[in-house]
Amino acid sequence: MRARSKVHPWLMLGPSLLAWSLFVFVPLGLAAYNSLFSWDMLTEPVWVSGANYGAIAEGGELGRILGRTLFFSALVVAGSMALGLGLALLLDRPGRFFGFVRGAIFSAYVVSWVAVALLWVLLLDPDRGLAAAVLRALSLPRIGFLSDPAAALPTLAAVTVWKITGYAMVVFLAGLRAVPPSLHEAAALDGADALARFRYVTWPLLRPTAAFVATTSLIVSFQAFDVVRIMTQGGPARATTLFVYAIYEQIFMNLSVGRASALSVVYFVVLCVLAALQLGAWRSQRTTRGT
Amino acid sequence: MGGRVASHLVARRQVLAGLAATSLGAGCSRPVRDAKGRIRLRIWYTLGGRNRETFLEIVRRFQERNDDVSVEPVYQGDYFESLAKLRTAIAAKSAPALSHVVAEVVPYLARARTLTALDAYPGMREIPFVRGIGQEGAFRGGGDLPLYAVPLNRSTPLMYCNGELFAKAGLAPPRTWQEVVEHARALTRPGGERWGHEVPISWWFWVALVGQAGGSVFDEAGRPTLGGEAGVAALRLWQDMVHRERVMRPPPGRDYDAWNVTNQDFLGGRAAFIWTSTAYIRYLEDNARFPVVAAPLPKLARASVPTGGTFFVVVEQAPEAEKIAAARFLTFFCEPENATYLSMRTGYLPITEPAVAKMRADGFFAKHPNDDVAQAQLASVDAWPWEPMLFRIERDIVDPRLESAVLLDRDARAVLAEARALSERPG
Question: What pLDDT is attached to residue B426?
Fold first, then answer.
């Protein structure tokens, strides 16, 4: 289809471009500009060139924040995909009971992050929580799920997985329903057992669904804020200070707009690299499959 | 037809211009008076529970006696959330006339020229504040500066002992660092059943320890020394009690989450003696199933406590009519009846000398010995430096390092050396 006038495509794109400019490009440009100043919003900004980037990189803090965020994302993506797929395979059955269980699992996804985080704070309380009672009943040692620096980040990842697994399960269920039963029947006639049918029939057809679940889980994990703010406030010993929380902490707790802006710029670059890697992976997959 | 289109366009332009003018006007000024012609006095506050009830009762009393002012108190979350909002509102030129902020941030806000000097407002300079907790005594040289800050809820750290456990063990509250360790050892039960001692790993309590060890976090010239050897000794005391002695629990969470955990552990009998704020005297007394015995913090080289809590501040950019109303509210707030009401209901220190005298004359301190301990401890107050970077050094540099040093048992000297280097050039 050809445009009748050269102006028409721009007219169509105009509203989106305007919105993107106002809410994405301009703020991004402002953040990049602010990152070159020491500024607290109240006094005059002072030009510091790249000192804010130097400050956040100093002592390896930036690397630690990035490492933590990537580790958290890896746990969340792997956990939600594995559990979501497992539950979808287990619950892809007719009947009210399975419908109820599917609904119950999905319900966690629609509950607000604040409620979920508060619920888990109570459950994981090392003295009065359900988890502590179970550990005591089994004569296992106390675990400071949120107070031990080694346990806190995996705990937050587990809570996030618990919250979003219902969504992954529903998407996988939709993917499973799209697999033609005739393929399974043909494979069964050829002597394929359940595992072989999953490996050679179900999984190849579920790959686009899996890629979608991976992408959405990755987005959720990189945006993690509420769960950190409510459950750990970035602690203990900064063990759960993820990227978005670190930005919040710099600007709202430490009154440093320059450093928060520098962190935002680095965060944007990291997301661009991840997006490029993901796009590259999709393209290579499409090329391999000849589509 | 063409004429109709043209007139339609003109009309639309007029509407748009009108809208733009209205929005610009709204951005530049705000209604100082309400529909009834009363001056609007917006107050942002951060108090919860009984503190909030008490504060709102004083607001109600003021409102009752001042029908030309309409007070609009708005809750804004905890101290730090509220500060973030206030700072943003100041930048957006929409801040309320009156708010209250943590003591350590007052020099920063004053340097940024966001606070009103209150000296010229009727009665403000004559208020007889208790020296240690008013601007004059809370900051070095605070009396030589214009009056920017009026104490609201002021406190010091205080030790709270479980009277029942101490009586059973035949112990008195610890008076030295050595006794703190020994008593904590004697009162700890294995397996996390009960910790001898608990204190939030936070700047405020560490500063108290630094002072007790004979140090100061800033030198006389206002340079951040972080206590030198005293700072290291203070940090090592905590590290030893947590990792070597295993008699102290560092509560999980940051800021007031950790403070709440400390209180709950104390009330639940899971911590034998804690350090927290004088602000919790009434709360702990009312909710404990055992006698709560308050004691001054222990000494090493000397007795020392910092002050905490918040000061009222009047925002410079507020309309003058609102500032006058704010000053009227502040003088009302400092009247003995209201100052004693706040203190007696909560545990915060009475802010004026007449309020202290009234409470003593009414026999309040005789009936409430824990409050008397807090009052006596004011003699050990060490003033904060009037240093604009104080708050950022506390929040950005020292607080997170204290937590990681205690939890991960990092080398105290190296941690504080790193913090000192960063404090000399905060971003």
Answer: 52
Residue B104: DSSP 8-state: G
Gap between the Cα atoms of B341 and B123, Å rounded: 21
Out of A55, A147, A255, closest to residue B87 by CB: A255
CA A113, chain centre distance (Å): 13
**Residues 104-133 (B) with a CB less than 8 A from some CB of A:** 108-109, 111-112, 114
**Residue-wise pLDDT tens digits, A231-270:** 998 988 889 999 999 999 888 877 789 999 999 999 999 9
Task: State the Cα–Cα distance between residues A250 and B400, nearest whole angstrom.
Answer: 12
Segment (H or E) for B80: helix B79-91
Give yes or no for a contact between B295 and B161, defined as CB atoms under 8 angstroms apart: yes
> Is A256's CB within 8 Å of B108's CB?
no
Beta-carbon count within 10 A of A280 CB: 10
Domain B39-154+308-378 has CATH 3.10.20.520: no
pLDDT score, position B427: 54
Residue of A nearest to B419 (CA): A59
* Of A51, A59, A237, Cβ closest to residue B408: A237
Q: Which of A120, A233, A249 to mutate to test the interface with B (most CBs of B within 10 A)?
A: A233
CATH topology of domain B157-306+389-423: D-Maltodextrin-Binding Protein; domain 2 (3.40.190)
Q: What is the pTM of this model?
A: 0.81
DSSP letters, A106-122, are: HHHHHS-HHHHHHHHHH
Q: Where are the domains of chain B?
A: 39-154+308-378, 157-306+389-423
Tell me, what's the pLDDT at B212? 97
B240: which DSSP letter?
I
* Direct distance between the N- and C-terminal alpha carbons of chain A, in angstroms, rounded to an integer: 23
Task: Report the top-level CATH class of A47-289.
Answer: mainly alpha
- What are the two backbone dihedrals, phi and then psi, of residue B198, each rounded to the nearest 5 degrees? -145, 135
Tell me the β-bridge partners of B161: B273, B293
Averaged pLDDT, B316-322: 95
3-state secondary structure of B213: coil
Digit-coded pLDDT (tens) for A25-41: 999 999 999 999 998 88
Nearest to A43 among B112, B268, B403 (CB): B112
> What's the rounded mean pLDDT across residues A109-127?
91
pLDDT, position A1: 65
Angle at alpha carbon of residue B265, lines to B263 and B268, rounded to 5°: 105
Rounded Cα distance between B303 and B317, Å, is: 41
B112, A40 contact by CB (below 8 A): yes
Angstroms from A159 CA to nearest CA on chain B: 17
Residues paired with residue B381 on neighbouring β-strands, in sequence order: B305
> Same CATH fold, B157-306+389-423 and B39-154+308-378?
yes
